[in-house]
Amino acid sequence: MKQTNNGSSNNIANQQNAFSMENQEKLLADALQNVRQHAFSMKRVLDQGVVMDGLKHAANMLSELRTSLLSPKNYYELHVVVVEELHHLELYLTDEFEHGRGSHDLYEVVQYAGNIVPRLYLLITIGHVYIRANELSRKDILRDLVEMCRGVQHPLRGLFLRNYLLQCVKSLLPDQEQESPDENKTGTILESLDFILLNFAEMNKLWVRMQYQGHTRDLQRRETERRELRILVGTNLVRLSELECVSVDRYKTIVLPKIMEQVVSCKDSIAQEYLMECIIQVFPDEYHLHTLNLFLKGCRELAPTVNIRNILISLIDRITSYSIRDGVKQSILETIKLFDIFSEQISEVIKSRSNMPPEDIVALQSALLSLALKCYRDELDYGDKVLESTRKIFDEVTPNMQVQTGSYAAKELVKMLKVPIDCYTILEVLKLKHYSQVLQLLSYRERHTVCTYIINGILDTETIIPTAEEVTLLLDLLATLVVDQSDSAFESSKQNIANEDFVEEQNLVARLCNNLHSTDADQQYHDVFKNGGIERMRFTYPPLIMQAYALVYRYKAIKDQDEKWEKKCQKLFQFCNQCLTLLTKPESNDLPLRLYLQGSLAASEIDTESTETIAYEFLSQAYVLYEEQAGDTKAQAESLKVLIGTLEKVSCFNEENHSTLRQSLTQAAARLLKRPDQVRALLLCTHLFWSAKRKNEAGNIEEIRDGEKVNACLKKAAKLTTQVMDLAAQIQLYNELLNYYLYFFKQNHPDIDIAVLNTIIEKLRTESARLEQNNESVEFINNQIRKTFDYMRNQAQLETNIEKFKGLQINQ
Question: Which residues form a coiled coil (predicted)?
Answer without folding.
Answer: 754-781
